[in-house]
Amino acid sequence: MVIISVCGTLYLSSATWERYQSSPTVVSMERDMLAWNTTFPCVTLCPEVKIDYMKLERYVEKSNVEDKEALRNFIKALANATYDNFDTVPHYDRIKSDDYLDLLLDLSALFKPTLTTSTSGFDLQIMPTITEMGLCYSINSKVAVYNSPEYRRANRWDTVVNKNPVFFVHPLDGEVFAQVNITSSYSGTLHGPMEVPDITSKLHHSPEKMYMTLYVKTISVYTSPEAASLSVAQRRCRFQHENNLKHNSIYTYNMCRIDCRIRLCLQYCQCIPHFYRRIDNEQICDVSGLHCLHKHRDLISDLIDESGKKVENCSCFPVCDDVNYITDTYELQSWVIATTTLQWGMVTFPRTRYKRDIIFGYSDVLVAVGGMAGLFLGCSVISFIEISYFFTLRLFFYARDNVGKSTPSVVKH
What's the pLDDT tens digit per position in 279-320? Predict the structure, then answer.
């Protein structure tokens, strides 16, 4: 009976400990909308005209190649190359694959948009960033700097301190929007300031001389300080400083997925595209490698293996403090002014947000273990402490007090 009681106590105690290690948190809903601020969305614009044709012509004319038209066509195709059209890049071996990115950056078109906001006294920063869609420009992003040409060319891996604060808005601010005017057609996507776009992001395309309006709804999740003290495995989310990625200086969910895609590129084609940051002895894909990546584009973009299952060792946790945006209003109309305009912002503010907090903490583990010990053994946690005391400290002091004492002498008669 004693053995059965001990086994029952150990079994249920281990189950309680497993619950504490695997699922001690809960996501609850808060409705006090006037008590918090909301992050203004970031937009990343990818102009379709990525090459300055005057720079391109000067480069082609100065080159010593005979077939200048082939060189010109190759650079144009490479500038807009993504997983969807890698197969359209013509074969050309006069440029080393290691020089692809630097060449595209040197020949990139000048991007000088006009940016305005409905809120005075706050300036949104525009940052060039290298994405899976090529060279793009992020507005109001706090992490785009880690993929900026300047950051990469300097071979930096340190954390950048953002001098500009995050742009927060409040329901009492009313309708809040920003507007950018550019000179070419583009594809754009909205995301959080602490996230980067990838090839699975929803892109909104706008031809030249069109006016696009995007208004969004917000879904935000934040983590309480108590839950933040747990391990990553326990809370099942990561903060940016808890970086475990090889190719990025900080952690975001999409950066983690990009890290997984790089591993798949190396697995299938033994090289990576030029827009990824390489480390160690990784090879940049030449044209044959790009064509190979196009053959496996579905597996790489969806992060699945050939059997359709999710790839192993690619469990990307969400960011602990995360903001997602859902398009609420989308309009695209012709524009009489000779510019291409995007207006984005927020009209309706969130009435709820989600909080990740502890529901089963360490004190709950002690209470549960003590209750099971009382049920099966008729004792409590204090009893285990007393047993430990008697077999450790009490035994030690008893042995110390009795060491060196001589045996009693024999009395002679």
Answer: 989 999 999 999 999 999 999 999 988 888 888 788 899 999
The whole-angstrom separation of Cα 309 and Cα 32 is: 41
**Nearest residue to 327 (alpha-carbon basis) of 184, 137, 190, 148:** 190
Tokens read off for 5:
């009681």
DSSP 308: S
Residues β-bridged to residue 116: 179
In whole angstroms, what is the distance from residue 365 CA to residue 16 CA? Answer: 7
CB-CB contact of 197 with 46 (8 Å): no
Helix (H) or strand (E) holding 169: strand 168-169
* Euclidean distance between CA atoms 323 and 221, whole angstroms: 6
3-class DSSP state of 154: coil
For residue 11, what are the contacts with CB-CB under 8 A and spacing of at least 6?
A: none
Predicted TM-score (pTM) of this structure: 0.85
Cα–Cα nearest to 229, from 368, 365, 358: 358
Burial 281-290 (b: 16+ CB within 10 A, else e): ebebbbbebb
Q: What is the DSSP letter of 81?
A: -
Place of tokens 């281990």: 14
3-state DSSP percent of the chain in helix, strand and coil, to 5: 35, 25, 40
Domain extent listing, the chain: 2-24+362-401, 37-47+112-358
Report the distance separating Cα 343 and Cα 176, nearest Å.
10
Q: Which residues contact 243 (CB under 8 A, 6 or more apart)?
A: 249, 250, 251
The string of pLDDT tens digits covering residues 134-152 is 999 999 999 999 999 999 9
Cβ(13)–Cβ(372) below 8 Å? yes
Q: Hey, what amino acid is at 104?
A: L
